[in-house]
Design goal:
alpha/beta, TIM Barrel, eight-stranded parallel barrel, two-stranded antiparallel sheet, 19 helices
């Protein structure tokens, strides 16, 4: 069979494909096992099968209102104090992505939540083997499968300029980030965190000089992204002033970056939309700090810093507020403080990966760890215990073992689904995003965008080179 015939057999009479368009004859069928088979084709099929399945998933989403969108206007409304009292979770979906995303959408439906983001970082794209077109397809398919019918905020997290590579060849490194942004926007990423905070140089005497490369390269990337926006979309862009895991950010640093960024942007592109949020450092680190016994060290998070930076970013710059990275491994008692301090967004990744590994069959986990001993050996420090080594490196196995993780025994899948449902419900509740669907309906317009069939489409955007060591 041709790829189109294979796809048509999977979808059956519920979805009609003719003359380059998709018509959903039976919407209920999108929430059936037919979608499971379709998304597997989009991830594990031949190149041609992947292309057709991803096209069909996109078009099915367009037909029923599950469309990638920008959260920009909602964030600006928050900057105007029209809405408040919640913190948007930005969830990095790394492993077993379809089932993980299904749990997120089940929770969103249960709590009437709409203000949340699904994201993947530059580094994660590489080691989880999820290019943007695949990631978008899986997120849309998961929403269709669960009956979620609202805009999807899909985000590029830490589209980061690597400091070491920038020092060697700044043009090539910035071009690599541009190429990735091009690929991501073409796929449906309409929210991007531009991370040029790696270029902050504390050796300079003034804050403006310390932040200069950060805001100048940030403006260069902003202008590049804005030139790629689809009609009717203003991509939500985030800047960053503090490298996660370093010293806590300050209000003067925020002002130095934002004043320099706004001044440079308006000089180069008068009237162009700028940032909608700003990432800061307030005491966390990506993945947490793992101790020799495998436990996670306590984190002293400075909520006053978050509150001050969020307030200044809203009142003085019209942004939604501050963004906190590396939050998923915080203790449960910490999460209610984020909406209290009006933190705009927090990024959650590692703990969901931890939950996945905690539920794996012992034989598969042992196989993965044996693979890591060989393939990640160069990352092991002499002082690392086994627990520390595996905790820090096991994310690198998510791509090579993707097929196995998508094919776990049904009882394991069910157990993990229950655990994810409970965790997402806890987080959405503590972060105050239950009941935010009306905000999305009020402020967000996701334009209908149809794509040509794979046999008529232009050549795909080349995959951008990724840096597996960039932050996430």
């Amino acid at each position: 069979m041709t790829p189109l015939e294979t796809l048509s057999k999977i979808l059956g009479p519920a979805v009609k494909i003719a003359d380059g368009r998709v018509a959903v004859a039976e919407p209920a069928a999108l929430s059936s096992a037919r979608m499971d088979d379709c998304v597997r084709l989009a991830v594990f099929g031949s190149d041609e099968e992947k292309a057709w399945a991803r096209w069909a998933i996109w078009e099915m989403g367009q037909a029923v209102g599950v469309r990638p969108a920008s959260i920009h206007e909602l964030y600006l409304a928050r900057g105007r104090d029209e809405i408040s009292g919640f913190t948007c979770p930005a969830i990095n979906v790394r492993g077993m992505s379809y089932d993980t995303a299904r749990a997120i959408f089940r929770t969103a439906i249960k709590l009437n939540a709409g203000a949340f983001l699904l994201e993947i970082a530059r580094s994660e794209i590489a080691y989880t083997d999820q290019r943007p077109s695949e990631y978008v397809s899986v997120m849309i398919a998961a929403a269709l499968r669960e009956g979620y019918r609202a805009p999807l905020f899909i985000q590029g997290d830490h589209f980061q300029v690597n400091h070491k590579k920038f020092k060697v060849d700044p043009v090539a490194e910035v071009s690599a980030v541009k190429q990735l942004a091009h690929e991501a926007i073409a796929a449906g990423f309409y929210n991007i965190d531009l991370d040029t905070s790696t270029l902050v140089d504390l050796s300079h005497a003034t804050l403006d000089e310390q932040q200069r490369l950060n805001y100048e390269v940030g403006v260069e990337l902003t202008r590049f992204v804005r030139a790629l926006e689809p009609a009717g979309v203003t991509i939500s862009l985030g800047g960053e002033i503090g490298e996660v895991g370093t010293e806590n950010s300050t209000v003067p640093e925020l002002r130095a970056f934002m004043d320099g960024y706004n001044r440079t942007l308006q000089a180069q592109a008068p009237g162009m939309a700028g940032l909608s949020k700003i990432s800061v450092q307030s005491g966390t680190s990506h993945g947490g700090v793992v101790l020799a016994d495998g436990s996670i060290a306590d984190v002293k998070l400075d909520f006053q810093t978050l509150e001050d930076l969020s307030r200044v970013s809203r009142q003085e710059y019209g942004l939604s507020g501050a963004v906190q990275h590396g939050a998923s491994t915080l203790p449960d008692a910490a999460f209610h403080h984020f909406p209290r301090t009006e933190t705009a967004e927090i990024h959650l990744a590692t703990n969901f990966q931890n939950m996945l590994y905690d539920h794996l069959p012992a034989a598969l986990r042992d196989e993965i760890y044996a693979w890591l001993r060989v393939n990640a050996a160069e990352e092991r420090k002499a002082s690392d215990s086994d627990e520390q080594f595996f905790y820090k490196t096991r994310k690198k196995a998510l791509g090579p073992f993707k097929s196995a993780l998508w094919s776990l025994p049904s009882d394991v899948q069910a157990s993990l689904a229950r655990a994810y449902d409970a965790k997402f419900e806890f987080l959405f509740t503590k972060l105050g995003v239950g009941g935010t669907a009306p905000h999305v309906e009020r402020y967000i317009r996701a334009p209908e965008q149809h794509r040509p069939t794979p046999d008529a489409a232009a050549p795909a955007v080349a995959a951008a080179p990724d840096d597996p060591d960039a932050g996430e």
